[in-house]
Specification:
The complex is a heterodimer of chains A (223) and B (303).
Chain A (H helix, E strand, L loop, with lengths): L12 E5 L6 H9 L10 E2 L2 E2 L5 H6 L2 E3 L12 H11 L9 H15 L14 H14 L4 E5 L7 H16 L3 E5 L3 H7 L2 E6 L2 E6 L1 H5 L2 H8 L2
Parallel strand pairs in A: 1-6, 1-7, 4-5, 5-6
Antiparallel strand pairs in A: 2-3, 7-8
Chain B lengths: L1 H11 L1 H4 L2 H27 L6 H15 L5 H23 L4 H26 L5 E2 L5 H24 L1 H18 L4 H23 L5 E2 L1 H4 L3 H13 L4 H19 L6 H15 L3 H19 L2
Antiparallel strand pairs in B: 1-2
Helix pairs in contact in B: 3-7, 3-8, 3-9, 3-11, 3-12, 4-5, 4-6, 4-9, 4-11, 5-9, 7-8, 7-9, 8-9, 11-12, 11-14, 12-13, 12-14
Classes of the chains: A alpha/beta (223), B mainly alpha (303).
Chain lengths: 223, 303
């Protein structure tokens, strides 16, 4: 990736779009530590986090979900979620088991999965598995949450639920950066949108600015 | 809990009412149980199949062979464990980043490489093939093994019930996601690998006192690397009961078959193991639970 200068302000929802292969997930992998950048700086709250390990970045309060769901299939929903509370930024400081379990239950209620807490994660629908990922990420007590295609493959009702959930997460004061292909979602809830193409940032602005940008339309529709 | 205390107490009295043969057999069962439980506590949930158990056992044996005369036995046994843990730390540092079959092969290679290295050292540098070892009485071996067994089971339970036990399972299922949830996966893997290897080392240190002589072929026999895997799968990899049951039945089976069929026992053995794997993939424990479920369902079926 080259020339991606960006900043994200606290408490906003930022959308990240771009054609397939534009480098959106790579961008997330760089921020969350799955990949180490070869050059450049990534600052979170003033601290350079470039090249840190994923667990270190998680404990610095940046959490993420995955484009292809990565729940722990043979663990219960509760076990999936409590792990984040046990080891995330709160758990690492020795929060204790009871506190972690209470935290996990709270997040399960928040995403609406409390009734399914004893089911194996693999037995859930894709939509619910994505909710497990969100609850699990929230359990690590993030200040910034990276959502990688939260609504891909979901039906319209589920999409609406996810939009509403994303807004509620923002209302808790958590900054949200989301990769999304579904325009309805991205236009509806982003306060700002960044457009990537071939690993470069080609546009940035409010949803209406992006929708009318000639360069963006060229990239998406071809010239 | 009560049952466990009764079991340990009655085992502790065994040398007083059982003939020598059975005391040795029990020591042997304890040994394989320690190997299997230690192995399965780390390898079961994570799916990192280590074939390096022989290296940890052999390290313990050589600690006794080298220092047995100079240092009292209890200290030697602990030192054997320390040696195995250090070895596991080194091995883990070099290999726990690689996964699946590659890790299995790497750990096997490590174990075999260590065997060859020590063999070379002994032959070329020290000018000998093996070493004489201090011997301990059957009873000493029995009680030491009993203590090691209890400690191994406690360690395993402690790890499995702690948050690190949950992390190990998560690593086995989706390592990348575990990392992103704040788990220092490499540290968790390394520390639990070293901790579970400790008791294998202590086992080696006490076991070798039975042999009176040790060389690399005995100490680092590849048999010990495969046996925990087979026993755990045989009993049922999912829980501790399976590991204990697997080691118990397996050791007794060996003893029963070895004397009457010295030439064919491996063949019979292989057939038994393959049958279990083919027909009861969740091991002996799976067999028992299946049978109990059927018993429970039957009365309902008549309604």
């Amino acid at each position: 990736m080259v020339n991606v200068d960006f900043h994200i302000d606290q408490g906003e929802i930022v959308g990240l779009i771009g054609p397939n292969g534009a480098g959106k997930t790579t961008f997330f992998n760089l921020i969350s530590g799955a990949l180490a950048p070869t050059s450049g700086v990534i600052r979170f709250k003033g601290e350079d986090i470039a090249g840190m390990k994923p667990y270190q970045i998680c404990r610095r309060k940046v959490a993420r979900t995955f484009q292809l769901v990565k729940v722990f299939p043979l663990m219960t929903v509760f076990e999936n979620v409590v792990l984040g509370a046990l080891f995330g930024s709160s758990g690492a400081r020795g929060g204790g088991r009871e506190k972690a379990e209470a935290e996990a239950m709270e997040q399960l209620h928040f995403v609406g999965l409390a009734a399914k807490k004893d089911l194996m994660a693999r037995d859930l629908t894709v939509a619910n598995q994505k909710l497990v990922e969100v609850a699990r990420a929230l359990c690590t007590k993030p200040e910034m949450l990276l959502l990688d295609e939260l609504v891909a493959g979901l039906n319209p009702t589920e999409v609406d639920q996810m939009i509403e959930l994303t807004k509620r997460i923002r209302d808790r004061g958590i900054t949200v950066v989301m990769i999304e292909h579904v325009m309805k979602v991205i236009m509806n809830i982003s306060e700002r949108i960044m457009v990537l193409h071939h690993g470069e940032k080609i546009a940035e602005g409010t949803p209406s600015e992006i929708a009318s940008s000639k360069r963006v339309i060229e990239v998406y529709l071809g010239t | 809990m009560f049952l466990a205390i009764v079991a340990v107490a009655s085992l502790a009295l065994a040398p007083h009412y059982l003939p020598d043969f059975y005391v040795t057999l029990l020591s042997s069962i304890f040994r394989y149980t320690v190997l299997t439980v230690s192995w399965a506590t780390f390898c079961g949930p994570t799916g990192y199949i280590s074939l390096a158990s022989a290296a940890f056992l052999g390290a313990g044996m050589y600690v006794t062979a080298l220092f047995g005369e100079a240092i009292p036995l209890p200290v030697i046994v602990v030192l054997g464990g320390v040696a195995a843990s250090l070895l596991a730390l080194l091995a883990g540092l070099a290999s726990l980043r690689i996964k699946g079959i590659f890790f299995a092969m790497f750990s096997l290679g490590l174990s075999e490489g260590l065997k060859d290295f020590i063999n070379w050292w002994e032959m070329v540098k020290a000018g000998r093939q093996g070493r004489l070892v201090i011997s301990a009485s059957n009873e000493t071996i029995f009680y030491t093994m009993l203590i090691i067994l209890v400690m191994t089971l406690l360690t395993s339970m402690l790890i499995r019930r702690s948050k690190y036990g949950l992390a190990l399972r998560a690593i086995g299922e989706e390592e990348e996601a575990t990392d992103h949830l704040g788990v220092n996966v490499n540290a968790v893997k390394l520390i639990t690998f070293a901790a579970t290897s400790f008791w294998i080392g202590t086992t080696g240190a006490i076991t070798v006192t039975q042999f009176s002589y040790v060389d690399t072929q005995v100490a680092f026999s590849v048999f010990y690397s495969f046996v925990p895997t087979v026993m755990a799968l045989f009993g049922g990899i999912g829980n501790m009961l399976g590991w204990i049951l697997g080691s118990f039945v397996f050791t007794i089976l060996t003893e029963l078959l070895l004397t009457p069929f010295p030439y064919f026992y491996m063949l019979i053995f292989g057939t038994v193991i393959i049958s279990v794997f083919l027909f009861f993939p969740s091991g002996l424990v799976g067999l028992v639970t299946r049978w109990r479920k059927r018993e429970r369902v039957r009365p309902n079926a008549t309604l």
